[in-house]
Each structure stands twice: as C-alpha cells, then as structure tokens.
Amino acid sequence: MADVLPDSRRSIPRTDAVLAEPAVAGAVERLGRDLVKGVVAAAQAAARRGEIAPGDVVAATLRGLPRAATRLRPVLNATGVVLHTNLGRAPLSPAARAALDLAAGTCDVELDLGTGGRGRRGAAATDALLGAVPGAAAGHVVNNGAAALALTAATLAAGREIVVSRGELVEIGDGFRIPDLLVAAGARLREVGTTNRTHLVDYADAIGEDTAFLLKVHPSNFVVSGFTSAVGVAELAGLGPPVVVDIGSGLLTAHPLLPDEPDAAGTLAAGAALVTASGDKLLGGPQAGLLLGSAGAGAELVARVRRHPLARAMRVDKLTLAALEATLRGPTPPVRAALDADVAVLRRRAEQLADRLRADGVPAEGVSSAAAVGGGGAPDVVLDSAAVAVPEALAAPLRTGEPAVLGRVERGRCLLDLRALAPDDDDALRTAVLAAHRGV
Ligand SMILES: *Cc1c(COP(=O)(O)O)cnc(C)c1O
C-alpha cells in the first residue's frame, strides 16, 4: 500500500470536479454546498490515507451523503420500548407524514378560504380531537403535555391554590417535576394526604375560598403498591371545585392491554372538567399537549385557557396541527400497531430474520423477549415480544451504522426486539445486521 500512495494522492479528484459530477451536483441542490463539500473532503481524506481508491472518491461521497440536511439520523428502534423518549417517542403514521409535507408549504392554517377572512387556527385538529373523544365539548392544542398543565395552572390558579395529593407529586423526567411546574405558573400547591394514602376527606378539608381546582396527576412512570388508597375522579367531582386530570399518556379511549392507564373519554365521563395529555405517547402522534373540556364547565375553562396571554407562547405550529389531525383521522398509528401486534406474528418475524441471517453466516437466533410501553407510561406492564439475538459485539457497530439500530444488550447478547419495529423495517434491520457483522 505504502509505495502506491504517492501516485494515488496525485490522482485524487479535486473538489470542484467531484461537485460537478451530476449525482453530486443534485445533492448540492438538495442539501446545500457546504454540507456536500464536507462529505467530499472526508472522501478525499480517506483516499489520501489509502483507505479507498482515488477513483472511488465520487462513490464514497455519494455513500456518505445524509438523507437530509440535518445531523439527526434515522434509528431503527429494536429496543422493545414502544415509546422511546430518546428516539423521539411516537414514530408518525404515513398519513401524518404526508400531512406534514403538505403543511410544510403555505396552507390555510389560519385562513377561511370560503370568506377570505381569518380562520380559527387549529380548528381542523381540534375538531378531529373532539370527534375522537366522546364527551369532550371543547379542546385546545399546545406544545406538549407539560405546557397543557402549565397553561391550565397559569389561567385558572395564578395566585390561588391547587389541591393535589402527596402521592401524585410526580417527577416526569430529566429532573422536571409537576409540582415545580405548577408553582412556576404562579399557583400555590395545597398538598393533601400522604405518599401512599389519600382520602376524600383530605381533599374536602383543604377546599376553601382560594381553591382554583382539584388536580389529579396520573403517576405514569411508577407504581405504589401495598397499603395504598387514592380518590377517584368521580368522588372528587362531587366536592364542588373543577377537577383537572393530567392523564399523561394521551390514551383517548380505554385500551384492554392497559387497564391501569386512564383514558380521556373515561376521565371526562367520571366528571373531570378538564383533561390534559401528551400527543406523542400512546396517541401515537406528534409532540403536542392536549386540553379537553367537558360540556358546560369544562368548555368554559378551555375558552379561558385559550385566551390567556401565555397561550400564545405555547402555540403549536402548522406542522404539529397537520400531523395531529392526520394521526386522529388516519389509519392506526405505528405506536398502536406495535402495542396491539400479535406475539405469534412477532415470533414468526424473529424466526424468519434469524434463519436468513444464519444463512448469511451471522450467528442469530429467534428468542422470546419482554417489551415495554415506555415513554414514562404503564411501568408495570410487560408486553410479550420476540427478538433476534445476535452477538453482543454487534451492538456498537449496529448503533453507529446507517441506518443506526438500537437494540438491548442482555446477558452477553444483543437482542433486536421486534415489538416496536414496523414489519416494513425487517429488511432494513437484516441489511444493517449483515453490514455490522461484516465490519467486526
Ligand atoms: C409525560 C407526562 C407529562 C409530560 O408530558 P410531555 O408531553 O412530555 O410534556 C406530564 N404528566 C404526566 C402524567 C405524564 O405522563
């Protein structure tokens, strides 16, 4: 190698020549000149080191180009965690992706094309939401679940009291805590009960002139078991002040696999005035915060929330509105498909993948696996699943490959769990494993 290097160096194509190649020029149009030049420079450097032939610089450039002008990289979620917060929670349905693309241009997000006058922003998404939640009379969409709760507190409880059980003072993740968020919104907390037990009388005794609302927060990321008791929404609703419930996951109606996960329709039916939830957890949509109000009192509260000055600071963009509406109106989103997937089908996929990988010389085996809902939801629910087990040494090259694959290392093996992976991605997974295997 060493004695061919000088000649090779001389024949490394110059940057301008590479950029002029039609395929590379097309990439410059799509991705921008600076980005493509960076990839060309990396390919030239590889040729200078003798890692590729000088004649391969154009091909290496094309291989090295990202799909889009972003440093974000696609990742195949083989962790078995259906809602992986570090992987962006819910993957969007094809319907939602198409809606995103449409909304990315100019669109009538806030215009009534019939009259030519201003239209109600978000009307289509809100209508879809109300259509999907029996008992919801009014709705509003904000940036995320935390924003929905913060805006509710700022609107209804600034300088007043929120009555909440000590068992529901939840840290949601990354050090952020619901009680801190409520206080930051200007509310005072009136904590009642204890960590494990709170009774109706605790709430009743705490209600006074300053009470803005009674709050229930679903402890979505932990379970307290043993000597426990909590008060249900129906009982609280009888006490007088409005009941606000942060259900967390965004389940709109009850799901048989998740009996302990509260749903929006059931919570409103039990007497909640307002329900808040996330859009990118079990609903399977884009990051968003949903506010739903019951007929009567709840609808009035939603109207107030909408007009609060901070509502403007938590406003969602047209992309979110489009993707949310399409998630609600469109076919089953991937998260729900993953949750409802038959484990027998997952096993068959795992066996097939393992067979094909073994035929290509990769030590692989179809195994049973335990998947989880994730996204800080349903912490005690184990979803039966199936995985392809490959050598642990493949975990790192899989993670840094293209596309990246994130699996789970367990007892000396790398498990590629199929629960959260769309069946359409099985081929991409197989190709990625082969590439990783060849590299180690
Ligand atoms: C996830 C969650 C939140 C935060 O929602 P984001 O959409 O992540 O802001 C708040 N409350 C509960 C109960 C949750 O589960």
TrEMBL record:
Localisation: Cytoplasm
A Pfam family the protein falls into: Se-cys_synth_N
Enzyme class: transferase
Gene: selA
Protein's name in the database: L-seryl-tRNA(Sec) selenium transferase
Cofactor or coenzyme needed: pyridoxal 5'-phosphate
Pathway of action: Aminoacyl-tRNA biosynthesis; selenocysteinyl-tRNA(Sec) biosynthesis; selenocysteinyl-tRNA(Sec) from L-seryl-tRNA(Sec) (bacterial route): step 1/1
Enzyme Commission number, as recorded: 2.9.1.1
HAMAP family: SelA
Gene Ontology MF terms: L-seryl-tRNA(Sec) selenium transferase activity
PANTHER family named among the record's database cross-references: L-SERYL-TRNA(SEC) SELENIUM TRANSFERASE (PTHR32328:SF0)
